[in-house]
Amino acid sequence: MITSVCAVAAGGLTTWLVVSRGVRRRDERAARGEVIEVPCVLRHPAAREGRWLRGRMAVGPSTVAWKPSTRAGAKMPAPTALRHTGTRAPSWREGLRMNPRCTIVACDSSVGAVEIAVMPHDLGHLLLALERSAT
Q: What is the pTM for the complete model shown?
């Protein structure tokens, strides 16, 4: 029993260290003005109702572009001209499909209303890039 508890604790600590290192590197690259890729899920108007597509948002000083990481997302036209319209927390039902700690950013785009769910430590990067692209 003690061995199992120690193994779970060691696994949790290792995961936390790896994730925090990736976040720290992404923050450093963003501070230097480089384009970074923010992990996210996106609800596209052309996707089936309620479907969230995994991918990454490439954000930088003059760049906001979605890069899908699923076959279903590759078939969709990439949303361009994103304009931030609001933020919200995921609903109870959405929290079952994604991390309930994430924040959902609502945007208007060239393909219609798009929602992007990102983790709190990446929210600032996305909002800053959307603000820069709108001006």
A: 0.81
